[in-house]
């Protein structure tokens, strides 16, 4: 992460600071919805921070919809085409990015309907979820959380990246899932999430996060320690 200076913070204060930043954010002209990424390996628990953030945004009066990209996995026949532990397949082919564009991001483009599909595929049963569409009114916020979110040209207005050092990632990843580690090493090399995100949270110690926000943000790390 180069010369980035991370500052300690609690998860509660971090949530409030990021929510304040987003509440003050003004999207580009013609954009009716704010689209947020909470990016991180499963070991960093992006789902937990996304839930905290969504609750904080709702408390501020913003209709908010949280989407887990694990609801957009491809069928098992495609995910496991090259075996059950192929890191390149995990990186390139497990998540249905086309469906995310079509069912999540497309409806929130300028002139879109705001009708978002919250999930598409149940990986446990390996069949379509058949979930109903959710209506996100103009002025609402979409929070998408999951791993490997960058590099697909998704139109995020703000990216929060939960970063883990290689050692912490290995320690916090269950043994049965450590075959995915090369995919995250590749992600760091190709997508450079810590260099491109608007907010970076170092989560090596789950009880003691530290963070950095891009200059010019409405959330000042110095004021939230």
Structural class: alpha/beta
What spatial form do the alpha-carbon principal axes imply?
globular
Report the uncertain regions.
217-225
Helix content: 25-40%
Instruction: Report the strand count.
Output: 11
Major β-sheet annotation: 7 strands, mixed
Task: Tally the helices.
Answer: 8
Strand order of the largest sheet: 1-11-10-9-2-8-3
Distance linking N and C termini: 21 Å
The percentage of residues in β strands lies in 15-25%
Helix/strand order: EHEHEHHHEEEEEEHHHEE
Assembly state of the chains shown: single chain
Rg calculated over all Cα atoms:
17 Å
Mean pLDDT: 92
Written account of the structure:
- The protein contains 8 helices and 11 strands.
- With 225 residues, it is α/β, with parallel strands linked by helices.
- The strands form 3 sheets. A 7-stranded mixed sheet has the order 1-11-10-9-2-8-3. Strands 4-7 form a two-stranded antiparallel ribbon. The chain has a two-stranded antiparallel sheet with strand order 5-6.
- The longest helix is centred in the N-terminal third of the chain and has 14 residues, at 11-24.
- 36% of the residues are buried.
- Mean pLDDT is 92; it is low at 217-225.
Keyphrases for this structure?
18% strand; 11 strands; seven-stranded mixed sheet; 225 residues; alpha/beta; single chain
Short description:
The protein is an alpha/beta fold and 225 residues long. It is 31% helix and 18% strand.
Secondary structure: elements and pairs:
Layout: E1 7-8, H1 11-24, E2 34-39, H2 46-59, E3 64-68, H3 76-79, H4 87-93, H5 97-105, E4 115-116, E5 121-122, E6 127-128, E7 134-135, E8 141-146, E9 158-163, H6 166-172, H7 181-191, H8 193-196, E10 199-202, E11 210-213
